[in-house]
Amino acid sequence: xxxxxxxxxxxxxxxxxxxxxxxxxxxxxxxxxxxxxxxxxxxxxxxxxxxxxxxxxxxxxxxxxxxxxxxxxxxxxxxxxxxxxxxxxxxxxxxxxxxxxxxxxxxxxxxxxxxxxxxxxxxxxxxxxxxxxxxxxxxxxxxxxxxxxxxxxxxxxxxxxxxxxxxxxxxxxxxxxxxxxxxxxxxxxxxxxxxxxxxxxxxxxxxxxxxxxxxxxxxxxxxxxxxxxxxxxxxxxxxxxxxxx
Amino acid sequence: xxxxxxxxxxxxxxxxxxxxxxxxxxxxxxxxxxxxxxxxxxxxxxxxxxxxxxxxxxxxxxxxxxxxxxxxxxxxxxxxxxxxxxxxxxxxxxxxxxxxxxxxxxxxxxxxxxxxxxxxxxxxxxxxxxxxxxxxxxxxxxxxxxxxxxxxxxxxxxxxxxxxxxxxxxxxxxxxxxxxxxxxxxxxxxxxxxxxxxxxxxxxxxxxxxxxxxxxxxxxxxxxxxxxxxxxxxxxxxxxxxxxxxxxxxxxxxxxxxxxxxxxxxxxxxxxxxxxxxxxxxxxxxxxxxxxxxxxxxxxxxxxxxxxxxxxxxxxxxxxxxxxxxxxxxxxxxxxxxxxxxxxxxxxxxxxxxxxxxxxxxxxxxxxxxxxxxxxxxxxxxxxxxxxxxxxxxxxxxxxx
Lengths: 245, 401
Prior knowledge:
- Chain B: The chain crosses the membrane at residues 20-43, 55-72, 105-126, 172-198, 282-299, 305-325, 351-370, 376-396.
- The complex is a heterodimer.
- Chain A is α/β, with parallel strands linked by helices.
- Helix content of chain A is 37%, strand content 22%.
- Chain A has a domain at 77-145.
- Chain A contains 9 helices and 9 strands.
- Chain A has a 6-stranded mixed beta sheet with strand order 5-6-7-3-8-9, with helices on both faces. A 3-stranded antiparallel beta sheet of chain A has the order 2-1-4, covered by helices on one side.
- Chain B is built from 16 helices and no strands.
- In chain B, helix 3 (56-68) runs antiparallel to helix 7 (161-184).
- The chains are: A alpha/beta, B mainly alpha.
- Chains A and B meet through helix 2 and helix 3 of A and helix 11 and helix 14 of B.
């Protein structure tokens, strides 16, 4: 397996937000991390990308943990944050170069890939601009380009669909399926359940810091036959939120 | 609306007072008194050399008064959030702007009085102007400023661009003409015309404001700009949190970047050098301190004083650059790059060495220009090398490592 989170207890302060979480993401698989605001999605992600240290439990990425070999662990990981984060002083071109340098990518092949990605997201004529002044959607596209520039084995994508135009959403889903087919694992957190239902291979449903259920859509549906037909319905009934009908 | 402006004005004045206290500390006041006294003395000495033949001075005075009209703007104290929260009460905003107008008027008055006061002795010498005529000149200047401010209030509303441009230029040109008439023909004529102009501007404003809408975006931008100017001034003397260094592309400096190594070992260096060159905060600090240091060094001879200055300034620059190390800590990617932990510090030390060495070399040149002997220059060189080594290799590591 690519990513294995096992018995993770963690959070920002002494009081754990996450209570004993275990799940895996296999190579070539897109796993949706679903949960309400405050359910613990971002905390989980922050643990996986190494910003937070687990209080208990382990996070392994192809057999490596941060504690055993931080560099090797981070080399395998690419992250797209929910809110785009950019260097104010770097141009778009330099953002890409910075990523290439930081991940030690070969410049020629990386630039070939970069140009393809820039073309897809219609950024190829903005190489000398400061992305810090872009609109939210365009900033997000820069984040996507930087992440997919790497040869990561695990992509962590935090709520990618808000702010992107429909064309870009389509292109992002295509990119995800491309990296999946070369064997990369993708963990994506989102609130857009319709899209998630269609594209994710498996789901991890978080609620109040615990895993409520996990599995493929059909498995989950079989588990809760009365909850409804769509991921949306199932999720709402699981979290105990009453629906107005 | 009246209360809103009152509240904001109080908060604004409190803030200004807070910063003014910091700026005008005891040392600065004493220095300022000497400075103003020196200027006054120079001015009065210069006055003695002037005779009635120097008529060109009248032209300069006229331009001076004309340009002086542009000093001080309308303090609207409008905030970005107002575009949302005050939008429903847009019509009432005129009251608010009127209050702003009053405040700005009283703020502008002393400036204009001082301007007229400054040129009064010149005019009395060259034009042999009487005291009463000076009063007329003062009335003219205040009336012109009044019309300028009224126009600025009108500009807070959405007037078409061509209309705005036209009226602005007209106001500027008419002001200049009135000043010229007052100085060349009769001050009372100028005062009368200026009052007519001011009344005209007020009439136009009354005609137009209720028929149009507030130019929110432009107003917010110009107020932000005005405040930034004030904060920048304070920032010369003390730390103002509102002044966040802006970023400039500075393409002409790109050649410096060509020399920097580009590989995984220097990824942070790639970031640091660009941030340093394009951010205004730290680069401005280095440039200012280097220039001031070099000038002081040049004027302080080649004794112990200059060596002390050299050591202090290099230390000051190095010391104040240390926070730059943490500049990108809030960017999550710097934590998740697969880079060995010590690289960041190493890259930073490298940049620090380059900057401090450049400063050191400039200081050496300034010192050498004072006709210091080669031995003394060599001594300073050794001192610089030792100091930079200690700062970078030992002190920076201690503080940041």
